[in-house]
Batch of 4 targets.
Target 1
Amino acid sequence: MRVNILGTKYRIIIATNEEKPKLNECDGYMDPTIKEIVVGKFEECPMSVEDLQTHTKNVMRHEITHAFLHESGLWTNSGNVENWGAFRGNYRLDRSSVPKDAESIPGSKMYLVG
């Protein structure tokens, strides 16, 4: 499958860990050097999420967002990824401006509001 991201064509691959060993460390990844998005081919197991089809779509959307950020130039400019998230209106950059029930986004300084 191919997808056009800001005029750049990326190939989307659903692969097993054996086919793409990087998947041993993550559910998916984006490689901007070869314009490829790789999503794991998930199998049911006692520790997996119930709806693997929805999980696959979520991972794919996440990696497409990474590709968008890379192609737009936001990825390489320090702070711009966080600013873009804040600009979209769903995120806040510091705890002082968010409600007490806001959910923090792991690995970042942002919080999901609402």
Note: Residues 29 and 96 are 33 Å apart (CA to CA).
Target 2
Amino acid sequence: MKELKWSKIKISKKPNQPSKRQCQSVFEFNDKMYIFGGYDGAVLNDLWEYDPEKNSWEEKASGSNERYRNSCCSINDKMYVFGGCDKKIFLNDFMGL
């Protein structure tokens, strides 16, 4: 069995990247990685795209209610988010992009 080893990826455009955060969702869509929401001292509602070809991040949207501890996925040509928590309550909404 091949041994796997983590290595740090240096981003080419460092100022344009997601804030430090926890409890975000991460998923793959069309060969790119996306990060949605999370918590960095405030509850977030931003969507970031990482392009491995360009080795760079780009903020794509902010929309949906701010949330953390949510679940995201992509199916065919859509992205979906379900549930999570906002500042006060648990959510059970289902949204698509």
Note: The chain has one domain: 25-96.
Target 3
Amino acid sequence: MSVEHVFAKNYTAEVRYVGTRGIHLDTQNRINVQNRVLPSNQLPTYFGSTPTPNSTNTLASIRAATPRIIPAYSAAGFTSNIVGFYQTVALTIMASRRNSPVVSRTAF
């Protein structure tokens, strides 16, 4: 939603509300948890009885080698899940004069 107003023939002001509204969000993001299984330490895949070349990894060794919580979050004291549901709301105010640069400010 936005409102624009022209005044004194050469000036324009515009105010915008930009937002999303989330109801019954089906997904959640754990923003401080990292993937433990990467291409370099993947679990073996078996086709028949022959494992893929990277067969030395076990789930226990992957859990021991890679922490679940991102180290920067752990160091800051966030040792359990931080769950985020994203919703964005912003107010934008723009002012301009004919043949001049636009001045814009946004607040979240």
Note: Residues 2-107 form one domain.
Target 4
Amino acid sequence: MERSEYIQIIHKDKVVTTLVGSLLYEKSIAASKDILSTKIKIPIHFEHRPDLLAYSIYNDIDYWDKFLEINNIFDPFEGLRSGDEVVV
């Protein structure tokens, strides 16, 4: 990858190089949205529970954060309500 695809931030007085927040990162999220175009409505028993939803869809709770990110949900207690339509 080219150096310009990374960004540098200072965290706890140390310089950290990351892809998060870079143009490449934003493009990969946009590409994921194109690939993952199946939409569902959140069932009542998954309200505010991205971990359970990720497990039921992907058989792995470790995808809960990616699921929220792809759906632009920053707070599962505000943005993951029963009846909401989300991309999986």
Note: Residues 38-88 form one domain.
